[in-house]
Amino acid sequence: MEFQDKVLKCIDCGSDFIFTAGEQLFFHDKQFKNEPKRCKACKTKRVSVLGAPPAPGQNRYTKVETQATCSGCGKQTTVPFRPTQGRPVFCRECFMSRRTAASA
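User: That's the sequence. What structure does it adopt?
Assistant: Structure tokens below.
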């Protein structure tokens, strides 16, 4: 299959950009159904705003710390996740005591 460069219009900034034959071949090989909608500059900006996947060798996940009130003892604690509404949140001590009680 022979591909030729195409001129596309960016949906963000409205400028024209080239969808090269090599890029089209890549899209075809990966069986992508849609052509790109954004120029390289707008795509880079969008990825930086939405959170790009980290480069190889970097931490894959950023640690989240959330202040919460323990459902067991009522003291303020910090948990390494965003609590889900309607689910209990426990401090380290209450979590460990419930964990050992459950395994016994």
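Residues 58 and 93 are 32 Å apart (CA to CA).
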